[in-house]
Write a structure and sequence with these properties.
By secondary structure, the chain is mainly α. Helix content is about 65%, strand content about 0%. The longest helix has about 35 residues.
């Protein structure tokens, strides 16, 4: 690892840490209805929207009603996207783009998969955006869902915090009002300046027809473009991840410079990281909020260094084939496993993007995931298997980390003879059952789906380039990514088939709703309790020892759930590669 990469990583985390405090405080003010600088503009719009929604947008909700609103919004959003995709040839801008350029048929199973994908912030793409979607579909269907699904996730995260912070009553706030505030006060105000920054850096923002050109070699080429900047901003800020183009963040129109790469990486993690500060402010436990952020940062740094190391040591298969080991540019600019990487970002930019996108529930890849070394791809897979609690999705990442902290507090309390209490909330038998259900959902969903794909001809037919351990990793990666609502994929797996469109759809639904159900039920249970005062006999949850135990708990639970899968996939492939 050279000095420039060290500096890039340090600067990224330093700037992120600096913005966590003000951004987290701003989020707390928005959702506790304190005054903000956007109130004069946003409050009149909020009042109009809430008036149109009626009384349901005013009253406070118990967890069951809050969860129903969360499901209802996703259901209506998915149906709307499905209808728009199936009818896109009759809607505006279809003639501008194609149809001769829109070569991927919009089948029922692909439209259903895409609709659920964007309604759950997964944005898993079994298609190439520039050859499948019209401009209207990209913006009115997918772009709108990026706002609404991201806002819904943030709302659920805030409701979960309220459940832990509330001293009796059992109420979690109003889902519809939280979604409106998430859009008007958070996502929209951040998306507009970010989109302008991207336009400044060369990201297209137009509704022009695709351009057909003749290359210098005399061949023909079609240059796709469109309203990319607006789509790209909310894609990252809402922790969605679906790309306007097939190459996603590796496409020069989505991510043209090293500066845009850093901007987009910040956009993915800024809000999820800031929620740690929001959590500390709303619960009155600032030190514990910072402990959660530090825990996330340590796990993130370990994965980042691991990916960098894995991609820097080279590929013996390429070396034995006398392939060039790196790209030269004066002093050698890239050494190691350069295949499938964007040379304009280098090893440092690529490793940072892999770590951010696999941890941050936003599969906006800037390198070909299928070309990562076995260990590099294995670390990305492990990041998602942890539940994406390192920053993670907007709202959902914090929930996963707090649930891990709850499990740690319960077990550590039993080991030290202290009562199972977390921030004044008692972890009793009902609460522990909900935590256990949340932990078990991932292996119960991911492992059977992976086994089904391996056992059936329809599943194995998707392996177009690699069998063996890499094929196993490709299939597992698809279901893990779908379940984690991330959207990462190995391109060696042809996922545009009825089998994968429907099975990954099931994984997306499970990852979005089966995980949210026990989380909100737990928040409701805590909200109904009277908070206990902290005493000398309480387990300290803001100490370095608790952070160490929390990290160990995360690694142990992930390992116990998925170690055979990791061994048979990335680990075996690594041993085979290096003999």
């Amino acid at each position: 690892m050279n000095r420039a990469d060290y500096l890039q990583y340090f600067a990224f985390l330093a700037v992120l840490t600096l913005i966590v405090r003000p951004l987290g405080a701003y989020l707390a003010r928005v959702f506790t209805h304190d005054r903000t600088f956007l109130d004069p503009i946003a409050i009149p719009i909020e009042r109009l929207i809430l008036r149109l929604m009626g009384p349901a947008a005013e009253r406070s909700m118990k967890w069951q009603e809050y969860f129903f609103g969360f499901v209802a919004l996703a259901f209506v959003g998915a149906l709307t996207v499905f209808a728009l995709l199936m009818l896109q040839q009759f809607l505006p801008f279809y003639g501008v783009v194609g149809p001769r350029f829109l070569s991927t048929p919009m089948t029922v199973d692909l439209a259903a998969n895409t609709a659920v994908s964007f309604a759950t912030t997964t944005t898993w793409q079994a298609y190439a955006g520039e050859t499948t979607m019209s401009y209207f579909s990209q913006i009115a269907a997918l772009g709108v869902q990026n706002f609404l699904a991201g806002a819904a996730g943030l709302a659920v995260g805030i409701a979960f915090i309220r459940g832990i912070a509330t001293d009796g009553g059992g109420m979690l706030g109003n889902f519809w009002r939280d979604v409106v505030r998430a859009v008007l006060w958070v996502l929209l105000p951040l998306s507009i300046p970010m989109a302008l920054l991207l336009v400044w850096q060369g990201v297209p923002m137009n509704f022009n027809p695709y351009t057909a050109v003749t290359t210098l070699q005399g061949g023909s080429q079609v240059i796709a473009q469109g309203p990319v900047a607006a789509f790209e901003a909310i894609k990252n800020l809402g922790t969605n991840g679906g790309g306007f183009f097939n190459a996603n963040g590796a496409h020069p129109y989505e991510n043209p410079t090293a500066l845009t790469n850093l901007i987009e990486m910040f956009a993915i993690v800024a809000l999820p990281a800031a929620l740690c500060r929001t959590f500390g402010l709303m619960t009155g436990r600032l030190r514990h909020g910072w402990l959660l952020y530090i825990t996330m940062t340590l796990l993130f740094s370990a994965g980042l260094v691991g990916v960098h190391r894995a991609e820097s040591i080279g590929n013996p298969a390429l070396e034995s084939a006398a392939a060039p080991r790196g790209f030269a540019g004066g002093e050698e600019a890239w050494t190691g496993n350069a295949e499938g990487k964007e040379v304009r970002f280098g090893t440092g930019g690529m490793a940072l993007a892999v770590a951010v996108t696999s941890n941050g529930a936003t599969g906006s890849a800037v390198a070909q995931d299928d070309s990562l070394s076995p260990l590099g791809g294995g670390i990305a897979l492990f990041n998602m298997l942890m539940g994406e609690l390192v920053f993670g999705g907007l709202g959902t990442g914090l929930i996963s980390m707090v649930l891990a902290a709850l499990l740690t507090a319960f077990i550590a309390g039993l080991m030290t003879g202290r009562g199972p209490v977390y921030l004044g909330n008692t972890i009793g038998v009902p609460e522990m059952k909900l935590i256990a259900i949340h932990v078990l959902i991932a292996p119960v969903v991911i492992l059977p789906l992976t086994a089904l794909a391996l056992m059936t001809e329809a599943g194995r037919a998707g392996l177009t380039t690699n069998l063996g351990p890499h094929g196993l990793t490709s299939i597992a990666f698809a279901y893990v990514s779908s379940f984690a609502n991330n959207g990462h994929n190995f391109a060696g797996l042809n996922a545009d088939s009825r089998f994968y469109n429907y099975t990954t759809l099931l994984a997306m639904l499970a990852g979005r709703f089966l995980l949210t159900l026990p989380a909100l039920a737990l928040a409701g249970a805590f909200a109904g309790q009277r908070r206990r005062a902290t005493t000398p006999g309480s387990l300290p949850v803001d100490s370095p020892i608790f952070a160490i135990v929390l990290i160990a708990m995360i690694l142990i639970v992930t390992g116990l759930s998925f170690l055979p899968l990791l061994c048979l996939g990335p680990a075996v492939e690594h041993l085979m590669l290096w003999k």
